[in-house]
Amino acid sequence: MADYDYDLFVIGGGSGGVRAARVAAGDVGARVALAEEDRYGGTCVIRGCVPKKLMVFSSEFSKMPSLGRGYGWDIQDGSFDWSVFCGHMNEELDRLEGIYRSLLKNSGVDTFDARARLKDAHTIELSNGETRTAKTILIASGGHPVRPDIPNAHLGIVSDDIFHLEALPKSILIVGGGYIACEFACILNGLGVEVTQYYRGAQILRGFDDEARGLIAESMREQGIDLKLGTNIVEMAPASADHSASAATATDAAMGATAQQSVELGSSAKGAQGPVWVKPTSGAPREFDVVLFATGRDPNSRDLGLEDLGIEIGRRGEIIVDEFSKTGADSVYAIGDVTNRVNLTPVAIREGMAFVETVFKDNPTAVDHELIPSAVFTQPEMGTVGLSEEDAREKEEIEVYCTSFRPMRTAFAGQPDRVLMKLVVSKVNRTVLGCHIVAPDAGEMIQLAGIAIKMGATKEDFDRTVAVHPTMSEEIVTMKTPMRTA
Ligand code: NDP
Question: Which residue, 21, 110, 349, 449, shows the most beta carbons closer than 10 Å to its own?
């Protein structure tokens, strides 16, 4: 038997790679190494879920003063300081990166701060010139945001860049209608930036339940986001020189400023390329201080040396794997966003754990990609699990239980917010096929509803559960009559 340096070499120090490495080393006692060319923690910790959620929390404070006043508090609008927030955020990211590094170290994993590529199915070449061999190689190299193929697209920023802006812009155009576009539209609007969003399709958040998408779009507009559907960029160019004076910081933006309210202007939005002139598919050309492309992410599969090993790569660059995350080469596996299956952190972690079971514990474990609960951190949030009404209709006869109302907390303060609670139920066997919630903290709610739905709960199981009163989510167990059948 060949004598390898390691039992396992992991390429990529994000959530999936780190979990697989430390479980294989710590629990199984395998000899493991991991290479990461950037910061440990990957997209989720360094330039995705974690800093994004901190920004969501930060932006939500803009609504607090008016809500507080509705409850009798004498609270005045304050001001938001982007540099203070970023300072705290960066300290937190440093702390988390340190935890990731020490988890690996404490599990006995050797780490290389270098880029890795495969020389052959058992040999890894590192950018520092070293070479290592391993019995098994796991690719967990993640993905990266992409710009559309239009002239001057480099003038726009992508989600990675948001966290490095030295100042917030006065105005931003966000292109796209997916998770990232909608989340950042809400975040930046809450922080006082004038937000325009172009989405090329008929409604944002394609693939989610239509009713939920409609309510989110309506709420975003109500909060001041200029959402333009059926619109895309045709052309972009640097804005005229005299425009650049208007590049601004929202550092002094009044808390609670809506997109329409003016903000005090300061230094330019450093980190971006300067103001941009944009010609849309409909309407007059406009200028924005920053253009953010949130037009999807592609897998990081290039320059890994895979093609020569007979490993199949898909149209978007995804590494093709079987149900056990094995590639076309027997000793090479891939997990997480680089495989473009379900691009969510907890899924990558699951795939990493299943890989360890399969390869190191002699327990072949396929990853279960069914009924994955998820949340979109718009304001209000959406929590969802299972089939949308539209997808369920295609499969079988259904009943739809649905209610939309003004929740007590904000209605009391005279605010117009609405929430949505929806169950899609099989008429054939009464199973709840889908649950869709649009409400503050919907992500927290759907985690729990997801357990019941994953267990195969029927509508009658929901009905038998006593309501928690007074809450928004009690409606999930009190809807008695179907809104419609199909
Ligand atoms: P998505 O694939 O969700 O959305 C991409 C958006 O860009 C779509 O609206 C798409 O339109 C549009 N688009 C694509 N190409 C073009 C183009 N050439 N011109 C104009 N518009 C275009 O990608 P995101 O970048 O938002 O997110 C990537 C992934 O990251 C998500 O799918 C998700 O898995 C993950 N993620 C999860 C989060 C969470 O769990 N809360 C948060 C953020 C990201 P169309 O609909 O017409 O294709």
Answer: 21
Domains annotated on the chain, with CATH: 6-143+299-360 (3.50.50.60), 147-295 (3.50.50.60), 374-485 (3.30.390.30)
436 is catalytic: no
pLDDT of residue 252: 36
CA distance 280 to 233: 4
Question: Bridge partners of 131?
Answer: 125
Alpha carbon of 97 to ligand 1 centroid (Å)? 26
Residues 6+ apart with CB under 8 A from 245: none
What would the pLDDT profile of 243-253 be if each residue is shown by its tens digit? 443 333 333 33
Look at the alpha carbons of 385, 390, 393, 398 in this order and tell me if their dihedral is positive or negative: positive
How far, in Å, is the centroid of ligand 1 from the Cα of 64? Answer: 30
Determine which residue's CA is closest to atom 19 belonging to ligand 1.
Answer: 148
Cα separation, 250 vs 171, in Å, equals: 9
Alpha-carbon distance of 53 to 59, in angstroms, equals 10
pLDDT band at 274 (very low <50, low <70, confident <90, very high): confident
For residue 286, the 8-state DSSP code is E
- Six-digit token string for 36: 């990461």
The SS3 of residue 252 is coil
Q: Are 7 and 136 in contact (CB under 8 A)?
A: yes
